[in-house]
Amino acid sequence: MTRDPELLPPFRLGSLAVDFPVGLAALSGYGDWPMRVIAKRLGAGHTTAEVLLSQFVVNVSKGRKARRFLRVSDDEHPVGAQLMGDAVESIGAAAAKLVEAGFDWIDLNFGCPVKKVVGKCRGGYLLSRPEVALEIVSRLRDAVPPEVPVTVKMRRGMDDSPESRDRFYAIFDGAFARGAAAVTVHPRTVRQRYDGRSSWEFLREVKRHAGDRVVLGSGDLFTAHDCLRMVAETGVDGVMVARGAIGNPWIFAQVRALAAGRPLPPPSLDQQREVIAEHYRLAERIYGPVACGRVMRKFGIKYASLHPQPERVRDAFVAVRKPGQWRTVLEGWYGV
Prior knowledge:
It contains 13 helices and 11 strands. It is of the alpha/beta class. It has 2 domains: about 10-260, TIM Barrel (Alpha-Beta Barrel), CATH 3.20.20.70; about 270-335. It is globular and about 55 Å long.
């Protein structure tokens, strides 16, 4: 298989150079420091931390929560932090704190479709309030140094009504006018949540409208082929992999290889064991030996899907209750 070497060229987020345009999206409950580090080591061009409420960031100062949510290490750059909130006043202070913690850029979440988030006038709800959304963009841009990129994550609207479409473009164009370096578009509506197919046709339309402005795509990216196909079919400047990377961080190595014309096979059991063990080791550093097992259980369930006996391995991870049992699962199901 031969691929155009320019299909996935490097790109820029404002002043920030990104060597490969396939990154890890913000994943609530999953995109913590260990997952970001693993994704970066396996080829992600950039990563984004799980979404944080602006008021939470302002209030958290030290201790376990700060170690978990504000941790940035040298080996994961470039890395962004994603903010969500309805309080315009707290956005700037939160962003400044995240920049001080070491994040390279700040992403605004105008796309979360979760009912309790939308019900509190956050996330995807802001797609129905362009004036509020754009005021947040302006406040954020003013709060961080000029060299720190500001980006926006959007869905294609609250629904498919003409009014929703008009509001989408008002926010999209207004964000760039106020200094956004890029916009990530998930082409499902807020009301769709995660159901049904995402409209790559809409994504293609948005990129045509944007011209030279940087547009990143997300939605239905579960394989390396999906990533390449989205770029080829829509013309976006890069893609953000979300659920497709949970339990399969090898997707980033696979898309790099495929883009170079060298398809990469699924990871062997030895490779899986090595990465899962390292993921656990990193998680133990920030959660401790007791809490780590609870946190890693959900990752183990996802990692099991790549094993030849996924259901039995999933059950084995679910049954883990003590730190030593994690090693037992690896030794029993992944060999030594």
